[in-house]
Design a protein that fits this description.
heterodimer, A: alpha/beta, 13 helices, globular, B: alpha/beta, 11-stranded mixed β-sheet, two-stranded antiparallel ribbon
Chain lengths: ~400, ~375
């Protein structure tokens, strides 16, 4: 087999509960909430105004080689998280550009704030007043390309805009590239910023919660839109061992499929099939999964459908299932990347991030959503669910490196 | 080094462009050297340029019927129509194949018209939330790929790739790895770009006037069914070409002023693809160049190709942009479609390798190597 084992050795996060892996992990442990009144766009006329906005982000701290003003907010998040991941991996920047390091970044809305801004100019002043500087920021490939430019990476950059499953798509593709030996390293994950378009759309569908996001709660009222980025640094196990890197977790595999049924409604049978694909590709049995990081958006439809699919696959032996969207809101394309980071630190540090804002468990949902408080746990294998508009499902599986039997593979 | 990827076969293709709808119309447009430039007064909004290379008579209702198309936007209509052509060449055999078949679609932002029009409603309606919820799914970038899956009941890997000029080549790279890893057997892969008021103004504001007039804005979609070259094809099917290599990455420093150094650096991408596939520059039958973004980049692309081919002139050397206009995200797929059309006409090219190339302003270079007729 050509297959290389792939491990996570660096993590970077820009989130509403903290910047960098230390603050992000602390936030997960204490069940922090990113919720505040949205100021990223004008919320006049909307009766709900809460979201998981990132406050106090200073792009200049992390973006060195490019002018931060030349990048949209999502690309700024993306580059900042990549720099955090590189620093966390303790790898020399020169080595990254001399060897082959690739980039893959998932997103839902790309540079949505820039498109919001251009559209507002169109409405108020007309198309002839659009600023070329902003137009150049619009293409979604800037989210990955800006990382490649910042660190002069030659291993190729790709942006995967598969909506709310995009972070997992990008991590899966990065894992594949290292696994077959195409590249030495990958920076992968997801990024998105809060935007008026997506807020208005979900609001119109009646799926924006008025105050907080309560996944798996009987009285859940929907999502809160959020923003941020999560970037993971990946390399082969061989490379990590050779340079004495700290290893968070191993990527065991992932599953990917499409409902081919409805653009918006989740599909229980298809999600169950995706879970089975993920387990098969990772070479594990469902009984080995110690924790599920749920898609868990907090809508009526998602949480009951996702719970149903989990019950279908896992039967009577249900592992704990939690949703960090209760803390961050739905960070769209960044969501499954930030959740993958949560999985990696959960495995490394031995705890399960909680589902906060939980009052009464919905009997139609999973019975144990790790309500309100993080829980110590020795996690050997965990899975991270992500589902998207378009019926795009992608589930990643992570394992503790020294889990039983792994050393003899 | 990047290892040579497993060869894929192209077992079906489809194209929708200003040259017409379908591979025959496309082939006729290319051989007759008939540019698809026409008036855009029929499009919504006020346009900065009176003409563009737009698809003649592209009416979604006429082409796809009224069922399921009520809210379909132009980008998705083009993708669904083009995918239909591909699946005529390569029909899927029942549910077993449908479960292992999917889409990989390149686009830079999805339908920027759908996104921007929807956002506009939040400003012009009495209340910011009085948007049309039925149009919301059109504002996510993976809308077209998801709709294609629904339309053709294909439940395998479904991915959307954003890469500007390189969207088509990146989609092929992605599809290639997915097939190699065994996650899917058949991936209908390509890229799409829609002409609209928004993209026309973006082009007007960011592309210098001289280049705009020489390469007007275009639109289109081209897609290809990709599967393992070694896979057994059901009887009666054609293997149009084999993909021998594909590479996209940063190869030159855009701040570097030395043209010759940049050309040499850019040529290394093309040279590496040839070397990995074991193809000698003298074997190249045709080169289809992108010639997209600016005059200086076009010269750089020319110089890089010349260096990589060691000065040898292939039998056919052209840019499809001259005829289809600048189709941005669709360009790489248009170039590949143009090579397939050329090879269909020029039987002497059978079994010989041909190249697609592109050079971007940020230092990215892309190169795709195919061999016509895989049998």
């Amino acid at each position: 087999m050509e297959k290389q084992r792939v491990v996570i050795t660096g993590l970077g996060a820009v989130s509403g509960i903290g910047f960098g892996i230390k603050d992000f992990t602390d936030g997960l442990r204490r069940g922090a909430s990113a919720v505040s009144k949205i100021t990223a766009f004008d919320t006049t006329g909307f009766s709900s105004k809460n979201g998981g906005q990132v406050h106090g982000f200073e792009p200049r701290k992390w973006i060195k080689r490019q002018s931060p003003g030349s990048l949209g907010r999502s690309s700024q998040f993306s580059v900042a998280s990549a720099r955090m991941a590189i620093e966390d991996a303790d790898i020399d920047e020169g080595l990254l550009s001399s060897k082959l390091c690739g980039v893959s970044v998932g997103t839902t809305d790309g540079e949505s704030q820039v498109i919001d801004q251009l559209t507002e100019t169109w409405v108020k002043e007309g198309m002839s007043s659009l600023a070329p500087r902003l137009i150049r920021q619009v293409p979604a490939h800037n989210l990955s390309q800006s990382i490649a430019q910042e660190f002069r990476l030659k291993g190729g950059a790709i942006t995967i805009p598969t909506a709310c499953a995009a972070g997992n798509y990008a991590i899966g593709y990065a894992y594949d590239r290292i696994s077959v030996g195409e590249v030495d390293f990958m920076l992968c994950g997801g990024a998105d910023s809060l935007c008026r378009k997506t807020f208005a759309g979900f609001y119109r569908l009646g799926t924006i919660a008025p105050e907080v996001c309560q996944p798996f709660d009987r009285d859940r009222k929907g999502i809160l839109t959020g923003e941020g980025a999560g970037i993971l640094f990946l390399e082969s196990l061989e490379s990590a061992l050779a340079r004495g890197a700290r290893i968070y977790a191993e990527i065991l595999g992932y599953g990917i499929n499409c409902d081919a049924d409805h653009m918006v409604a989740p599909n229980r049978k298809s999600i169950a099939n995706c879970i089975r694909n993920a387990h098969r590709n990772a070479g594990i049995e469902s009984s080995e999964v110690d924790y599920i990081s749920a898609h868990g958006t907090g809508t009526m439809a998602n949480d009951v459908t996702e719970s149903g699919a989990i019950k279908e696959v896992f039967g009577a032996r249900l592992p704990p299932v939690s949703s960090i969207k209760s803390m961050l809101g739905h960070t769209m394309g960044a969501a499954s990347a930030l959740a993958s980071i949560a999985c990696a630190v959960a495995v490394k540090e031995g705890f399960i991030p909680p589902t906060i804002n939980h009052v009464t468990t919905d009997p139609e949902c999973v019975p144990d959503c790790v309500p309100n408080y993080a829980r110590p746990a020795d996690l050997r294998i965990v899975q991270n669910n992500a589902f998207a508009f378009g019926g795009n499902n992608c589930i990643t599986v992570y394992g503790k490196l020294d889990r039983k039997g792994a050393a003899n593979d | 080094m990047i290892r040579r990827m497993e060869n894929l076969a192209i077992t079906g293709w489809g194209v929708t462009s200003s040259l017409g709808i379908g591979v025959e119309a496309f082939g006729r447009g290319l051989s007759g050297n008939l540019p698809g430039l026409r008036d855009v007064s029929g499009f919504a909004g006020a346009h900065p340029m009176p003409q563009a290379c737009v698809i003649p008579d592209f009416d979604i209702n006429t082409i796809l019927g009224s069922k399921g198309t009520r809210t379909m936007d132009r980008t998705t209509g083009m993708a669904v129509a083009t995918a239909g052509m591909v699946l005529k060449h390569r029909p899927l055999e029942g549910e077993a194949e449908q479960t292992r078949a999917g889409f990989v679609l390149g686009t830079t932002t999805g339908s920027i018209k759908s996104i921007s029009d929807f956002t506009r409603e939040t400003w012009v309606q009495d209340r910011p939330y009085l948007v049309n919820p039925a149009l919301f799914p059109n504002t996510v970038m993976n809308c077209s790929a998801g709709q294609c899956a629904i339309w053709y009941k294909m439940k395998g890997v479904n991915a959307t790739i954003s890469g500007g000029l390189f969207s088509g080549l990146l989609a092929i790279q992605y599809a290639s790895l997915i097939i190699r890893r065994g996650y899917a057997d058949i991936l209908v892969t390509g890229s799409v770009e829609e002409y609209c008021e928004q993209s026309a103004w973006a082009y007007y504001h960011t592309v210098p006037a001289g280049l705009r007039s020489r390469h007007p804005l275009g639109e289109g979609c081209a897609m290809f069914s990709l599967e393992r070259a070694g896979a057994q094809l059901p009887p009666g099917r054609t293997r149009f070409a084999e993909i021998l290599g594909c590479r996209v990455g940063l190869h030159f420093d855009p701040t570097e002023k030395d043209f010759r150094k940049n050309a040499k650096d850019a040529s290394e991408c093309i040279g590496a693809v040839l070397a990995d596939a074991g193809v000698d520059p003298s074997e190249i039958f045709a080169v289809c160049r992108c010639q997209g973004e600016s005059r200086s980049l076009n010269r750089l692309e020319d110089a890089a190709v010349a260096l990589a081919l060691e000065g040898r002139a292939p039998a056919h050397d052209f840019s499809v942009t001259e005829l289809t206009g600048n189709t941005y995200s669709a360009s790489g797929s248009m170039q590949l479609a143009a090579l397939l059309a050329l090879h269909a006409r020029k039987r002497e090219g059978r079994g010989r390798p041909s190249l697609v190339t592109a050079v971007g302003h940020d230092g990215t270079v892309g190169c795709l190597l195919i061999k016509a007729g895989g049998e």
